[in-house]
Amino acid sequence: MGTVSLKKRFNRIYSRVIRFIRGEHSGDALRNVSISILPSLAIYLLGVPASTAIGIGVGSLLTTLTDPPGNRKDKLSSALLCIPTFFVASFLTAYLFPFHWPLVILLGLAGFTFTLYGLFGPRYAAIGNMTLILMSFVIGLAPKHPLAVGLQITTGAAIYYLFSLLQAYIRPYRSLKHAMANGFQGLSQFLLIRAQSYDPNIPLDITYSRVGKIHGQISEQQEQIRSLLFREKKIIGHQWPKSNYWLSQVYGLIDLHELIIALDHDYDAIRKNLANTGSLPVIRRAIKLLALEIDSFSQPHIRFRYAQQLYYNTIKLNERLTELKNIQQQQTGPAGPILQSIITNMESILEVLRRIQVAFYQNQEIQDKIDTAEYQQFINRPLGSLGEIKNKLHLKNPLFRFALRMALLFSVGALIGILFLDFKYTYWILLTIAIVARPAFSMTKTRNIERIVGTFSGILIGISCLAFFESLPFLLSLSAIGLFGFFLFNRSNYMVSVIFITLGVVIALNLFEGNINLILGSRMAFTLVGAFLTIAGYFLIPVRQSSSLVHLAKEVASYNQHYFQIINQRLSDNLQSSFDIRLARKKAQTAMALFSDSINQMKKEPEHKWIDWSHIHHFQALSYRVNSHLVGLSISISKKNPEVLHNDIYVRIDELKPLLTDLDQIAEHISGSKK
């Protein structure tokens, strides 16, 4: 028994490792390391001075982090903004480097301006943040020829985007493919957490907390998928042979999310009513089998290899459903309708999975589809006018406050650098600020801990490598591995990425500059100074979640009310298009995900102990319950069964009305308590 369990655990770990290696970040890491090193090395071997090759390499290296997954249009827009921004920032920094006070003013203005790039979306926020890191690096290079430095950095940025755009045009749907895989995997994990809600041994507040955390991740994944797909005109316009394939996958993924949310009900009542029926363990086993089936779609290349295993899993799942139906038929009280609802939901999930399965083999026309012109309403639109930008520039806007904080921190960091001119690596203070500082306290604190622990661990590993190995090619290889590891784990595990990059930096600086004690002491000391400043900056110009929580609570109540109205309208008007109901559902569930994320952030703020969480937790649980009932109603309506519509739907609508009223009242109470 122990050997079998150990083998299963090994297989799970092996599967996770292989999936991680095959992920988009692995290919990106290899590409980024190659573009950061090989062009600069080739330029150096052609006889170009080492300083020029290093400048180009730094430009390429930093540009890699401005290019998150996206389509061709995303990468082109990034290139058009990033390249000139990098040139101006590097040139001005190098030009003012000898003049201390003008440099301090420049860095303060840069901290404010480039942080506000985030107004236009995450992609532009990455460019702004990396520009601040670039300016820190330029100070570390101690430049003597400003124009040369600016041109070197710009050349490196242009080289990177040349290869990135080339890859995007050769494989235009690479990011979409990986996003879809992550979407199925995320929903599988979401469903496994759902299974815990049917376990009386796990407190409900813990399950709701876990659901809230992963719900935010799922919402982000689905937002990325919508953004990648619905901006591809060839796909949504059915101009590509595989258009129906991709659209079927996305429709299926969104419908699965809807059905999994619909498993949410009043779990306290479910546990009490089903406690003596023997159905709870069966429900958990059935949900785990469903999660396994969903997860298989995240790896289509091996799904067919394990077709036999999946076939047996389907048999087991049908057996569990039959077992639940037998239990349900024996119930006379409230347990019967509850079990019927759960069984119906699971069967609906299986129906969607069969539809997705068909899409793997056939380019089947979608029956219930959204018109091409309507897709744009499902994606977040960037700010489009000066008026919209101006409306964001006020102290109540979290990003604006954060921009002010970054201006202050960069100014103070630069002043400290001036006071300690005898120290060579003071620019690491600015690097730490740019890398670690985040609007929310919890994110800043977590990044600080991860950076300090990662830096210390990387230094220890670097010292060990330098002590035991003397071979120059081997040490250079270790430095390259450190760079690769940084790119590989930068998105998934920041602390591990810091360990790798610290290892690479320690070895590289020791090989090229020597004086390892100064390098290690300065890196640790100035990293700690930067980390301290980021924490102090939060208390000076805080960005608290309580204000956004009030706004999000109102949005949750408002969007669920709107969702309810759309369902009523569709019921009375017998509308055929699914556009309005899908859009209303998307807005409601996005608001709930943001609300849950805000709660998680608030719980990590210093003042969380003085907050009354009872109403907030009750509101969160009620919102999930209301939304699950709304989803269940929309599913029932889509089946268009007249008998069901007349006998059941209107009763459920009447039951929902007081719950929606409660949701509005609690939202108002939260608003009043935060004033």
From TrEMBL:
Residues 83-357 form the Integral membrane protein YccS N-terminal domain. It comes from the Bacteria. It is found in: Membrane. Keywords: Membrane, Transmembrane, Transmembrane helix. It is a multi-pass membrane protein. Its main location: membrane. Residues 419-535 form the Integral membrane bound transporter domain. Pfam families: FUSC-like, FUSC_2. This is Putative membrane protein YccC. One of its GO terms (cellular component) is membrane. Coiled coil: none annotated. The keyword Flavoprotein does not apply. The keyword Transmembrane helix applies. The chain crosses the membrane at residues 41-64, 76-97, 103-120, 127-143, 149-170, 402-421, 427-444, 456-488, 494-512, 524-541. It comes from Sphingobacterium detergens.
